[in-house]
Amino acid sequence: MDKTASGWINGFLGVLIFSGSLPATRVAVADFDPLFLTVARAGIAGVLAVVLLLAFRQKRPQPADLASLAVVALGVVVGFPLLTALALRHITSAHSIVFIGLLPLATAAFGVFRGGERPRPAFWLFSGVGSAFVVGFALALGSGAAPVGDLLMLAAIVVCGLGYAEGAKLSRKLGGWQVISWALVLSLPVMAPLALWTMPASWAAVGGAAWLGLGYVSLFSMLIGFVFWYRGLSQGGIAAVGQLQLLQPFFGLVLAATLLHETVGWSMVWVTAAVVLCVAGARRFAA
């Protein structure tokens, strides 16, 4: 198998793993506090990251890399998990997945900002139309909407896009999976004590489904998914393999409907499809 084909396969596996993150989080926050879920998943993944880095004898990052690693940690280790966990207290995972359709665009936008590129006007046209679809969808829900959940999801997309862009830039120097591992290690001294401080007073009320949700977001969403994702980006190219992320909303909607038995209305499907098309168009004219 050539390097490019391997990159596409690894990227696809990464996206497939990430697609289960929001449904798993939705299940976990039913019994776990969102703050505890955030710090616990980071703490568990951080311990595993330490083991990986020691086992493969990875060199420590340079002091100049610490600021970028901090941005990655704040974006994908703390910001996105916490904001989505809080959002899923107000909205369903199917609803939240519509917003994930904006994640590739947010990543591209921060990539443009960090890389100093000058995208063509069509890029901003697609960007504006895609954002309008999402805002229009949220407003169309009317009294049944949860504006707090929508705003939290939008904030989650922004910080995650920044974390992805910064991580992609840093991975050229440190390597793909090493970036998320070092970001987790950097967060561990804060996450581990917070996990102990915020843990439930009693575990009796925590059901098996919540434990499975915590296990999934800790092992797969926080670490294993990034191993495949960053490997795919490095092998097949960030711009090319990054397109696979457009499939994530569809995978997530299928999981929300089949595993959580949530209602996925046609409006959600059409809005998600429209957002994906807009993001694809924006990607096409990003350079």
TrEMBL record:
InterPro entries: AA-Vitamin_Transporters, EamA_dom, EmrE-like. Keywords: Membrane, Transmembrane, Transmembrane helix. The chain crosses the membrane at residues 7-29, 35-54, 66-88, 94-113, 122-142, 148-165, 177-197, 209-230, 237-260, 266-286. It is found in: Membrane. The keyword Transmembrane applies. Residues 7-131, 149-279 form the EamA domain. Coiled coil: none annotated. Belongs to the EamA transporter family. PANTHER family: EAMA DOMAIN-CONTAINING PROTEIN, INNER MEMBRANE TRANSPORTER. This is DMT family transporter. It comes from Chelatococcus albus.
